[in-house]
Amino acid sequence: MESLKLFIMEALEDAVCKGNRPNRDPIGGSNENLFVPLIKLADKLLLIGLFQDEELQSMLRLIDPENFDPDFNP
């Protein structure tokens, strides 16, 4: 389970880095195919209590840095 959690965190970070670039024609028509499966799996891992507080904070910073990153500067 630990390796799955690490994979999800790395994949989510990679998806955020690649998903916020301007992209004319993403595969599948939107970035939904990139984010939704990762977030659903992260949700399941969160429900079973696999994430620690600092990992959850890191994930929230990736998803919404404006609200969860104190060092965010637009």
TrEMBL record:
Q: Which UniProt keywords apply?
A: Receptor
Q: Where is the Ryanodine receptor junctional solenoid domain?
A: 2-72
Highest taxon in the source lineage:
Eukaryota
Per its record, what are the GO molecular function terms?
ryanodine-sensitive calcium-release channel activity
Gene Ontology cellular-component terms listed: calcium channel complex; sarcolemma; sarcoplasmic reticulum membrane; smooth endoplasmic reticulum; Z disc
Q: Name one Pfam family in it.
A: RYDR_Jsol
One GO term (biological process): release of sequestered calcium ion into cytosol by sarcoplasmic reticulum
Q: Which protein is depicted?
A: Ryanodine receptor
From which organism does this entry originate?
Nephila pilipes (Giant wood spider)
